[in-house]
Amino acid sequence: MKKRRSSPKNAPAEKPWFLRQKTLEINGGSIDGDRNLRPGLYRTTAFALGSFERGRRLFAGEERGFIYTRINNPSVDTLERRLATLEKGEACIATSSGMSAVTLIALHLASSRGHIVASNRLYGGVFHLFREELPKLGIHVTLVEKPFDLHAWEKAIRPTTKFLYVETPSNPVIDVFDIAALARIAHEHHIPLVVDSTLSTPALEQPLTKGADIVVHSLSKYMGDGEVIGGALVGTQELMDAVRLSWFRDTGPCISPDNAVVLCYHIESLFARMHEHCENALAVGRYLSRHPKVRKVFYPAFGPDARRNKKLMPAGFGGLMAFEVYGGAKKAKIVLENLKLFWHAPNIGEARSLIIHPATTTHGQLTPKELRHANIPEGMLRLSIGREDPKDLIYDLGQALSKI
Ligand SMILES: Cc1ncc(COP(=O)(O)O)c(C=O)c1O
């Protein structure tokens, strides 16, 4: 019998089709047999296990399948597949919040008696977890006080160090770190690099493509457009399976299927929204950087490192920025209380613009010395620039600044 050719003789081999990020946020991770145009909501606690033997195999991790929503769920699975493809990772675990994602990976990699080396430019909650809570479990963290100095990272590594941890860009001073350089250091010491990429989202940066091993997200920011709390870990299938069947299963920080579906809906517009956040932040930053009552603008597009930052994050820096007014906390309070359009609220990445005073709120758990080392002055106000017309945001800031 003649052998059938799969393509005509001499026909050029078909090029593999790599979907682009904007397409992946809508279709990424879909599997053959997906029938729903919209992610389906599986609001159920448990799933039928089938035969006696299948029940045993599922619980032993020998067969993939849905068991119980604390462990896995089809709605959550859709979100996890989408995030994994967007981040160019093999697998993902969606969690109840960003904090639970950070805690989970720290427990999995560093318990017990492990050591972590982390940048000191961190969201206040993570800073507090690292400084206060993990040591109670025997996990010690060295916070690198000069995190731009690669030698300072090297020096902090010990034989018991289990991973390096960096948040980039960081909250609230929007420092941009060189992921590839940190990954090289980590790998020379045979340990992974964990990157909190909450503020870039996969629309602006994919740390795994630069050498990072694990990506952490708070999905409560840009991903969910301010609607729901969630978190995620992305990494190899082997690592995610190991986390799922240990700390994740046993401590229960799962996301609800309802929240997973809401997140899938919002992720479909992530690219377009991030583009607007970036454009608006640039316009507001340009205005503030020329304002006589503003001492400093914290946004990677401005200042002496702008060229370096642009090279590291060519797609943009997102919507988070901060500025310091002359006159410290007293004057910052006046500006905050006179804004009309900006909401005084502790979030990032919503359609509406938000403002907060980090030293007394999101980073209030840091001591005055730690605040100084983390480059957070008392007169600093953090802005999450939304998607309103930037001219209105500039007008509002102008009238509030005129009160000091
Ligand atoms: C960079 C960063 N990582 C993690 C978190 C914690 O996320 P969640 O509030 O979802 O627990 C936050 C919260 O603000 C954050 O800004």
Question: In a nutshell, what does this entry contain?
Answer:
The chain has 15 helices and twelve strands. It is an alpha/beta fold. The chain binds pyridoxal-5'-phosphate.
Walk me through what this model shows.
Belongs to the trans-sulfuration enzymes family. Keywords: Hydrolase, Pyridoxal phosphate. It holds the Pfam family Cys_Met_Meta_PP. One of its GO terms (cellular component) is cytoplasm. With 404 residues, this protein is of the alpha/beta class. It folds into 2 domains: 230 residues, Aspartate Aminotransferase, domain 2; 132 residues, Aspartate Aminotransferase, domain 1. Helices cover 39% and strands 14% of the residues. Strand 5, helix 8 and strand 6 form a beta-alpha-beta unit. Helix 1 runs antiparallel to helix 3. The structure holds pyridoxal-5'-phosphate. The site of pyridoxal-5'-phosphate has 16 residues, from helix 4 and helix 5.
CATH superfamily of the largest domain: Type I PLP-dependent aspartate aminotransferase-like (Major domain)
Q: Element order, helices and strands?
A: HHHEHEHEHEHEHEEHHHEHEHEEHEH
| CATH classification, class level of the largest domain | Alpha Beta
Q: In what order do the strands lie side by side in the largest sheet?
A: 1-7-6-5-4-2-3
Total number of distinct structural domains: 2
H/I helix tally:
15
What is the correct CATH architecture of the largest domain? 3-Layer(aba) Sandwich
Shape: globular
Topology, number of strands:
12
Mean of residue pLDDT? 94
**What is the strand content?**
5-15%
Bound molecules: pyridoxal-5'-phosphate
Alpha-beta classification = alpha/beta
Low-confidence stretches: 1-7
Oligomer: single chain
